[in-house]
Amino acid sequence: MDEGQKNTLIVDSDFHIRQSIKFFLERDGYIVDTAGSGQEAIEKIKTFLFNVIISSYNLPDLKGADFLNALQNNGSTGELIFISDAPDVKEAISLIRKGVFDYLSKPFEIDKMSFLVQRAVEKQRLINEIINFKSGFWGPFKHLVETIDARDHFLSGHSEKVRDYALRIAYEMGIQKKDVKDIELAALAHDIGMIGVPVLMVGKGLSEKDREQINMHPVIGARILAMNPVFAATIPSVLHHHEAYDGSGYPKGLKGDDIPLGARIINIAEIFDAITTDRSYRDAMSIDRARTEIIKDSGRKFHPDVVELFKKIF
Q1: Are residues 61 and 147 in the same domain?
Q2: Residues 107 and 197 occupy one common structural domain
Q3: Domain boundary residue among 126, 161, 194?
Q4: Environment class of 277 (CB within 10 Å of its CB; exposed 0-12, middle 13-18, buried 19+)
Q5: Where do the H-state alpha helices sit in 133-205?
Q6: Is 0.70 topped by the overall pTM?
Q7: What residues pair up with 83 in beta bridges, in sequence order?
Q8: Do 121 and 180 fall into the same domain?
Q9: Residue-wise pLDDT tens digits, 119-170
Q10: Alpha carbon of 311 to those of 114, 155, 160: distances in Å?
Q11: Distance in angstroms (rounded) separating the CA atoms of residues 241 and 165
């Protein structure tokens, strides 16, 4: 593990809880500090960079959204994980939308906490790599994308295939070379926000909170890419690649031609790869059946113009 991403802050008014979590994280190689109140935590983040902050939701001085706001207003870029006795699902979802990494409910398994901290550290490492990415150096970026896809073996190679399908559609459309390059990079990066989703497996049996976290991945991806101007042209396509032609998609519910062209292309390319690839919860469709399903959703999920081009290629 990179030493630069191991700094963790535990915030809880109970000394024994702080020390218990500290013991387990230090055992796993993390550098851990503690704070007994929200205000003490704020003072610490002013002088030291913490990559992960694990905090009780019900601190005596700063609770929930107030603590999150205080962290953000004081320049914290660390991933915040709340621990709560009985978290309200709607409140949890609201705070996840505002930037909280995840919630843990008491009592929690230490392995679950370790998993969340590991995912938060991975996200911080990704952010650093994105910030330092230089235009033209595609090899390291492709390796980064492959690493994200490989976290679920069912998704291995997914982003590369989406890139290939999107390029075929873009070339058929006759898009200018520069715009094709932007679409290619956006297609590779379209799921980069999944690094910020602390869900073990995408598929059936997910909770409402899990589904909300998955639906946040375009927003998380766009936020991360916005940290480097190299990706400026890709952000609309990444942010909106799950919008639907009829307005039923996410995250903004855009309709029709309001959806960026790159996002329309990546959407159909991603769905085509997804339904023709085995998943943990279902088998892959045949190419012919997948083609039929996509054509059936023309004018609903997919832009009719892109579907017409898709029909010529596949």
Answers
A1: no
A2: no
A3: 126
A4: middle
A5: 138-149, 158-173, 177-189
A6: yes
A7: 56, 104
A8: no
A9: 899 888 888 888 888 876 677 788 788 877 776 655 678 999 999 999 999 9
A10: 46, 25, 21
A11: 14
